[in-house]
Structure formats: structure tokens, C-alpha cells
Amino acid sequence: MVVGDNNSSPDEEQILNSDPKVVPDASHGSSGSSSSALAGAEIDIESVARRIQQALTVGNKQHRFWETQPVGQFKDAGDTSIPDGPIEQPTPVSAVKQEPYNLPGLYEWTTCDMDDDHTCTEVYTLLSNNYVEDDENMFRFNYSKEFLHWALRPPGYFKSWHIGVRVKASKKLVAFITGVPARIRVRDEVVRMAEVNFLCVHKKLRSKRLAPVMIKEVTRRVHLENIWQAAYTAGVVLPTPITTCRYWHRSLNPKKLIDVGFSRLGARMTMSRTIRLYKLPEATMTPGFRKMELRDVPAVTRLLKGYLSQFAVAPDFDDNDVEHWLLPVEDVVDSYVVESPETHEVTDFCSFYTLPSSILNNQNYSVLKAAYSYYNVATKTSLLQLMNDALIVAKQKDYDVFNALDVMHNETFLKELKFGPGDGQLHYYLYNYRLRNALTPFELGLVLL
């Protein structure tokens, strides 16, 4: 979600500081040394416990909103007598509050129709000027209109979950929050959920306490569809993460990354040596590696279902979901399959989505083109080789950096393929669903945009 400013109250800042992924963080050097990768990569249970303890000592004021919500509370961490499952049971939909929550008098709710080009442009403009920035204000996420169309209109989506706030007098869009429906398996139970994302409040309104009421409003609208759970991510510790992950970054255009301050030149490294270090082959290595097509949807669904079944929390995709989320869309999502030259069976699959960042205050560059690893399944090809091919096609398509979380089996290729660990951490949360024990990143099979 979005970074709070210094005028935010503690509660508002905790909510708005809910970065759903890590902005380029200028965090790793360009030496690619495995020792530096090891130093930054390990997120152990003790460090998570330490951060939770630090969050507890900040005082109740910091989390007074979240302590009123049906989420895992810090005080219950490690209590094995509390069962997994919903925290609050559903009520009849007729008992759900029928009217929207009250906004401050100058503002009004609006439903953002993402099929309408003018509205989509308004949302794009709000996000591109006010959404997540890194701590040094060097980069800001720049979701394209095409990406927003893709991210917010999956099968069965509800327009009423695309929620905006306008200034009554001018009708200017000044805040936004969304939910999209998903089926997420938690251990052995498939749960209908909302994936909540894109919480954004105009920078000049960060002290107006809009964020808590926006979260309550999207929750109300989700409940009206008889859905009682949600999944979301944040860059800060809130009550209470189900797991904590880290982004890793692989340089594809190291000179540009160093020039814009995303990366630093490693100790005893020259620019020419750094460029050589990150050089990739001109062509992919795997026989039968090709772009995914519509005819591949059933095979990719089978591969994904089999692969994701081993993780404690993962999406429950069907053919319609796979067609929407994974069929290639130019500059939005790229997907590739490996088709056996002998049997023509689709044996492997990899994908990444496109999320550029605006480069702020740089005379030479305005956009950082970043690929984000999405879902990857290797059965006949090694995951290492499959992801190396993904890096090669991303380089061919002029991406500057390839990012990947240390979820699923990703840790098996990160160091070998010269990814470096980022500074930021990404915390995953479930709303109104408790897990007794936190997961390790490699028990998580879910990637949220």
C-alpha cells in the first residue's frame, strides 16, 4: 500500500506504510559475491520474533486500528491452543452494514469503473504521483493502465470493490483502495477471499485519517458478497504476519542501475567487470522453450495445481484463472512454457510481470523497467535453467532488473543466478483467518501483485 508522510498520525502511518512489495531499494552492491548474499538473505524465526517484540514495545497507540480487527494479535503468537481457521464466524449478509462508512465532510465515495478510460486514467494519475516510494524518494511505482486493467478485472471481479474517494467540490480523485476475489487454499481448506491492494491516499491528505475508514469500507463491501477473509501484504510489521519474505534483485542493465542509484559498484569492481559479471547468453538454452499460448492453458493449470499443492498457503487456480493471470499480455505479464520436442508435452512453465518505477530527480533516466518473478514450475528442466532462460528473455526485452521473492523454491536459484538481497522485507497477512504457527517463506506459494 502506500508510504505515509510525516504528518500522519501513528495509526495512519502504520496503515499507509503497508507497501505491498518492495520498491527498488538501492540496497545491494554490484559485486554479486555470494558472501554478501548470504549475509542479507536469512530471515530466521528469531529475527521475526525480535521485530514482533519491537512492534509490541512501540505501544498500543501504533496498532490501535489493527487491534480492533479480526487478525492474529501479537499477544497470541505461539499459543498452540488456538486453532487454525476463521477468527470471527460469518454473519448473515442481511446483517452487514448497508450504508457506506462516513467520510470527512469534504469528501465522497466513488466506485471506479476500470472499463472507463477516463476513470482508469484518473486512477493511474493518482497512483503514479502518490503511490509507494523508496525511503530515499528516488523511485516510485508506476503501474501502467494496462497493468491496472489486468490486476483489477480477474474472473468474477466486483466493480464495487474498486473504491475511490473524491473531493465533493472538484470531483478530483484523491484516494483509492481495491479488492479482487480469489480462492486461496490454507493448508487443507480452500477459502474464498479478497486480495486487498492499491491503498493510496494523496500526499496532501495523509493527515486526514482516510486509510482506516477506507479499509473498513472495502471490508464492508467484501462482506456484502458473503466473503469473510482477505489476504494482503505490507512492508511494515502489523498484527500479525503469517510469514516474512525478502525481495532479491538480479541486475540485467548494471550500468543504468548504478547510474540511477539502484545499485552500487562493488568493492574492487570496475564498471566493465560488473557488466561482464552480469552478462547473459544471447539465446535461451532449453529446447522447446517458447511463449505460452491459449492452447497451453489446461497444461499450465495442471502443472500449477500439482506444484502449488505442496505449499501451506497457495492460490487454487482453475483454467479461467490461469487464462487471465498467466496468458501473456504485452508489458504486463510474460509467460513461457517448455514443450518437449519429442512428445510435445508441456513440462515446465515460468512467468514474470512488469512493474516499472519512475526514477525521480534524474536527468538521464525517467523509468526503471523491472520484471517480477510470478509463478514457475519445473518438472523436466531444472528450476535453475528455467529461470536463467527467464532472465535471458527479460534482458532481450530490455528490462533493467529482475526481482524475485524467496518464496516457494526460489531460494534454490537466487544465489547461483547472481541475485542480490534487497533491504526491505515483505510481510504477508490474512484477515479473519489465524494460523497458529508462522510459515517459512518456502512454505508460501502465493504471490500478490
TrEMBL record:
**One Pfam family of this chain:** NMT_C
PROSITE patterns associated with the record: NMT_1 (PS00975), NMT_2 (PS00976)
Q: Which GO terms describe its cellular component?
A: cytoplasm
List the catalysed reactions.
N-terminal glycyl-[protein] + tetradecanoyl-CoA = N-tetradecanoylglycyl-[protein] + CoA + H(+)
Glycylpeptide N-tetradecanoyltransferase C-terminal domain boundaries: 259-437
Query: Where's the Glycylpeptide N-tetradecanoyltransferase N-terminal domain?
Result: 86-245
Q: Where is the composition biased (Low complexity)?
A: 26-39
User: Does the keyword field hold Transferase?
Assistant: yes
Which InterPro entries does the record associate with it? Answer: NMT (IPR000903), NMT_C (IPR022677), NMT_CS (IPR022678), NMT_N (IPR022676)
Q: GO molecular function of the protein, one example?
A: glycylpeptide N-tetradecanoyltransferase activity
List the residue ranges of the region (Disordered).
Answer: 1-39
Keyword terms of this UniProt record: Acyltransferase, Transferase
Reported EC number(s) for this entry are 2.3.1.97
* UniProt record similarity statement: Belongs to the NMT family.
Q: What does this protein do?
A: Adds a myristoyl group to the N-terminal glycine residue of certain cellular proteins.
Q: What is this protein called in UniProt?
A: Glycylpeptide N-tetradecanoyltransferase
Q: Which organism is it from?
A: Zingiber officinale
